[in-house]
Description:
By secondary structure, this protein is an alpha+beta fold. The protein has nine helices and eleven strands. The strands form three sheets. It has a seven-stranded mixed sheet. Strands 7-10 form a two-stranded antiparallel ribbon. A two-stranded parallel sheet has the order 8-11.
Amino acid sequence: MFRFTDKWSDRKKEATEVPASEKQLDLVGLEPGEIADDLGGGPLFQGQDSAGNTLIFGKFSHKEIHELMQWSGIFKAIESKGYGNFHLELQYLSEYDQRIFVKTGEDILIHIRLKLSNFRFRLHAGIPEKKLLYIDWLLTRNPLVKSFRKDRLFPGQDVPGLGIFSQMADFISNLALGVGARGAFNIPEYFHDALLFHREFSFYDPSRESQFRSLIRDLRRFGAREISRAFAEERIINQDHEIIRWTPGEMISTLEPDLDALLWNRDYFTRIVHEMKRIQFRIVPPGEQHAKKEHP
């Protein structure tokens, strides 16, 4: 059910351990105090077992995470890329910030940053909060690839990704089930991130979903890489000649059919269809975007 992206940006500094006191909660629509109240007012789980070994979500030990990755085919896929000597590393910074790394030497091959939280369905007053797995950061890198064109990288990449889509999906899906989450959500940083996640996730806000589908409809011929680059260069405009910037928004995938039926109902898709009829996008050549007015 889960999808991922191969991306890399100035978050490279997050690859090193950061004191929990310096990490701030950034879950959409929730304040830190509210989250603490929602989750019972105390620690949700312990970051270590009695022997001092790191636990992910107070449950998964190094051995268990290793087994889940092995079963998902991640390690076999990495070995096929030429990595025979890699290791797994777990970090517990706080109950809201758990990290999983696969490294070869000091090079990061996989970096996953996860949080577990109650998601507030602000557009659905009748739906109670649900425990969801927040995929805050998901990166794969293939540093052995030495010969590649930098203009073929997606915005945010420094080297190509590993291309282990299905294996990562299996791993995170099993992890979510193991912690009793009712699904997952993420906030894609780039258009191409959203494109990958969109195979199983949908934007919670139907307005964002309609905009995203319209972008694909109108700009498909350019390809994901060029669309992401055009966003970065502010070269995408709408039917009113306004510059459109990429604005991250929550995308959700659930494990509950009943919740699916409430979220993705007839009204949701009706709004999408109606909005797609009135919006249109195009990419302007470099140098022309300065003449356009910015979308408010």
